[in-house]
Amino acid sequence: MRYHNPIIRGFNPDPSICRVGDDYYLVTSSFEYTPGIPIYHSKDLVNWEQVGNCVTRKDQVDMTDAKDSGGIWAPTLRYHKGIFYVTATVDGIGNFIMETEDILGEWSDPVWVEMGGIDPSIYFEGDEAYYCTNYSLHPGVEEITAVPIDVHTGKLLGDIKTLWTGTGGGYLEAPHIYKVGDWYYLFAAEGGTNFNHMETVARSHSLWGPYEDCPIRPILSNAWDTTKQVQCSGHADLFEDHRGNWWMVHLGIRLSRRTMSVLGRETFLMPVIWKDGWPYVSESRRCVIEAEGPLWEKQKKNSRWRADFFNETWEPQWIWLRNRDERAKRGNGMLQLHPVKKNDRSGCTHGVVGVRPMDFACEVGATFSFLPQTVGEEAGMILYLASDFHYRIGKEKRKDGMYLVMIRTAEDMVQTVLERKIGDGILSIRIQTGKEKDSFWFQEEGKEWEVIGPVSNRFLSCEVSGRCFTGMIIGLYAWAKEKTDSEVCITGFYQRRVEEKDTW
Ligand code: 6LW
Questions:
Q1: Which pLDDT does position 467 carry in this prediction?
Q2: Whole-prediction pTM value?
Q3: Residues involved in catalysis
């Protein structure tokens, strides 16, 4: 059956998957956003719904000081004897494991593991568990290493040993161990999480090696794909579905134009074929957008998402930049945010709550009623990539009254595209995103809609902003120059995917 990649769109890198019966759960990286580690569920591998997040409490992992693209990296999700485990790296801090019996409920506090490296994975065999990262025992040598571990305490139960040094692609990371038949397979990503990204594999009859490299390298990459539909593919997790078919989920990007991606790395699915005891991503060893695989359900289009704020519970899709606004309230069809004091430099490190885009072409909207008290208070909608790369449209209080402002920030270039005096009434805002350009719409109460743009979205792409592991999010912002008690009341937040010729 045919299906379309990516299976989970918009800023969802480093996927890891596990199966429980015919239920599939998948997690991705969440970086500096709270809650952390989104959990997606599917019964058929192609229709996914976000059902929760693993890190929901500040005392599990605190994002306050996370750098841009720091925070939580590359989780691995596993299920063993009735318990789900998630392990991940917190950039600059270390690796943790959390567990739960109910994946739709709360997760435990983390236990921290005394093993360095990034992209940790857990391999279970019988009653034993092994922890595996790209920690190197030999300075200057890239290695995948492993150690027996008590997964409940994080205590290492032996010496860390080297398993493999990869195939020389560099940036050896994202290891996973699997046992299939008599072989232990050790998967890893190489080449760096960029245009040279790839997945490689080695195997051994013993967990501790020696590992022999797969004669064909890599088993997945789009580095040589001149169609340029998908790039950067790698960082894969292998699994067998409940019907006995093999697959990989992995990260990749879709180019929004030339060498740029505004959605960041997304989650792809590819069928796996076995040849001479080695797993490859199809014959071509490439990921494709229009894929074919042994599926049992049709893929449906996800086209609309709405938050009416009628209840107090946050839908799992909402992510806060670093920290939640503890004073935020929702209910009775309204969300109340409080402008957060900006820091003086580039500033925009807090005071944003948003969602991942559904696709390149989206429309998002909301209605704001906001009577700011102090000069410099500002609230509206934002396309946010990093603290110094974002586009925003909102209402700002200045000395001589209220203004509608639309501002693009790209590092030290700050462009005010529009500033115009407006009234005190309700303001509706709408942003239309596209592969290359975005338009910003606004409507003052009782007046016509007006449009700003379209403007180039170049500065929201990871490749332009540099060392950026995330992708653009779409959200609401509320900032102030001074501490304030003002409230921003927001109603009817929606996102819908807009039909495009060349995007499914
Ligand atoms: C992830 C790692 C990577 O941990 O990017 O460069 C990190 N490689 O695999 C964040 O996604």
A1: 81
A2: 0.97
A3: 14, 173
